[in-house]
Write a structure and sequence with these properties.
The complex is a heterodimer of chains A (252) and B (223).
Chain A (H helix, E strand, L loop, with lengths): L4 E10 L8 E11 L4 H14 L22 E2 L2 E2 L21 E5 L8 E3 L2 E2 L2 H8 L21 H11 L6 H5 L6 H12 L8 H14 L10 H5 L7 H16 L1
Chain B lengths: L2 H6 L1 H26 L9 H12 L1 H29 L17 H4 L1 H30 L6 H8 L3 H28 L8 H27 L5
Classes of the chains: A alpha+beta (252), B mainly alpha (223).
Chain lengths: 252, 223
């Protein structure tokens, strides 16, 4: 791959703390290698800011290999930037052209308050998970692979749902700030497996109740969440969530 | 979970939108079919016969009542959801993805629905109100709905308003049809292509039929 160095104009959201109203500030990111990740570009810029005695731009990051779900950035109007099925840390600078202006914003949602600059508080997702996203039986040691028969298609669908890393891109991309894709993935991964059956109905009721309590919007099926999800979680999970919820209502 | 908890949850609210939406979709099949009778070009004889049947049959009158309940629920719930969902993002994005991640009409159901509501006020005051008044005043003595249609659609602005209403309806239906099934939990690789194709075909056929009516009267395609 051709190696290049590019210069970018960055418009970055700066906000001192949760109370501050915040504003955009413009920075020049110079001599950026196209092989860098988007976060590494921010590292270079922050290095420069620190050397100049300025406050570095705060952003969330952890694993930098696309599985922790921390790097929440809305880049040029897209959650995790212009590439499909990618987290910000896996977005490389070759996605941009020399001299391009790049606008970087935090996730915008009432349920995800901004803590500082690009860092938002996503603990609402933790509370949804804590409301029922678990199996509360003592499972003991891992069983033999064949001891618990599971249909291959079900196991695959459950695993696809379990791919969700809880990054919040679905909420960020949704015009209603709805967390239905996240919640549906967490409900689905258990609803499809035998281990999840014991608490199947109470799980969906409690998780949806918590989702509503946290102040996420309702789903209008625009499909923006599915388009932006770095793990490409399917909208069919939201349909399953609706079914599970109706079923629990009808029988509990 | 109580019924109240179900119907006030985010999923329950959408469930109401989907059920009332599907009942309105079914109604539009009857509405467009009966109105399509004008194309027999028999000076409205067939059309007036069915119009008379619909407004005098007690089962149809009961269905009309159900239709209005569904319609009002759909409107109120829709407007409330629009306002509630909008409030979930107090600080908006400076840059938006446009149509890169979703279709414009799927994001504009509130706007399209509001346009339809304005159209509906004009539409009901044109035809429904007059029919009801004549029904209760004189038992439909001398009431000719076909003639009323013919007269109304001689006025250019009326034709334009109806065409705009039909265009808004078409986009509203294209998203609403498949969206209703998704909300009811019907989503599987087996059904999805059928629902999608059926939804687009239904929206285009119904809206084309409705659009033809004012045009046919205005340009004198039917006498």
């Amino acid at each position: 791959m051709e190696h290049k160095e590019i210069n970018l104009n960055l418009k970055v959201w700066r906000q001192k703390n949760a109370q501050d109203s915040g504003h955009f500030e413009t920075y020049k990111a110079e001599n950026i290698s196209t092989e860098m990740s988007f976060l590494e570009m921010f590292d270079v810029l922050n290095e420069k800011l620190i050397n100049e005695g300025q406050d570095p731009i705060a952003f969330d990051h952890d694993c930098r290999e696309g599985i922790c779900g921390m790097c929440s950035m809305h880049i040029n109007g897209r959650a995790h930037g212009p590439w499909e099925g990618t987290t910000t840390c896996q977005l490389h600078m070759r996605a941009f052209t020399d001299g391009q202006t790049v606008t970087v914003e935090p996730w915008r949602a009432k349920a995800f308050p901004v803590l500082k600059d690009l860092v938002v508080d996503r603990s609402a997702f933790d509370r949804i998970q804590q409301a029922g996203g678990y199996v509360s039986v003592n499972t003991g040691n891992a069983q033999d692979g064949n001891a618990l028969p599971i249909d291959k298609a079900m196991a695959d669908a459950s695993f696809d749902a379990a791919m969700c890393i809880g990054c919040g891109a679905c909420v960020a991309a949704c015009k209603n700030s709805s967390a239905m894709l996240f919640t549906s993935a967490k409900v689905s991964q258990y609803a499809l497996l035998p281990q999840g059956q014991a608490e199947r109905k109470t799980r969906v009721l409690n998780m949806v109740a918590q989702m509503d309590k946290e102040g996420f919007g309702a789903c209008t099926n625009t499909g923006a969440c599915e388009a932006e999800c770095p793990k490409q979680i399917s909208l069919s999970n939201i349909a399953r969530l609706n079914r599970e919820y109706l079923n629990a209502q009808m029988s509990l | 979970m109580t019924w109240k908890e179900y119907f006030t949850s985010s999923i329950g609210k959408k469930f109401v939108m989907a059920l009332t939406g599907i009942s309105l979709i079914l109604f539009l099949i009857v509405h467009s079919t009966v109105n399509g009778m004008i194309f027999f070009n028999d000076n409205g004889e067939t059309f007036n016969f069915y119009a008379h049947f619909l407004s005098h049959n007690w089962l149809m009158r009961l269905a009309e009542l159900g239709l209005f309940v569904g319609l009002i629920l759909h409107i109120i719930q829709g407007l409330m959801l629009w306002a509630q969902n909008n409030a979930k993002r107090p600080v908006k994005y400076a840059v938006n993805p446009g149509n890169a991640t979703s279709a414009w009409y799927s994001r504009s159901m509130g706007l399209l629905g509001s346009l339809l509501l304005i159209f509906l006020v004009v539409h009901l005051s044109h035809f429904w109100w007059g029919t009801k008044v004549s029904l209760y005043a004189s038992g439909h003595e001398g009431h000719n709905l076909y003639e009323e249609m013919k007269n109304a659609f001689q006025i250019p602005w009326v034709v334009v308003v109806y065409l705009l209403g039909v265009i808004a309806l078409c986009w509203h239906l294209i998203h609403g049809f498949s969206s209703a099934f998704q909300t009811l939990g019907i989503n599987s690789p087996k059904y999805n292509p059928i629902i999608k194709t059926l939804g687009i075909a239904y929206s285009l056929i119904v809206c084309l039929a409705f659009a033809m009516m004012p045009l046919a009267f205005y340009f004198g395609w039917i006498s």
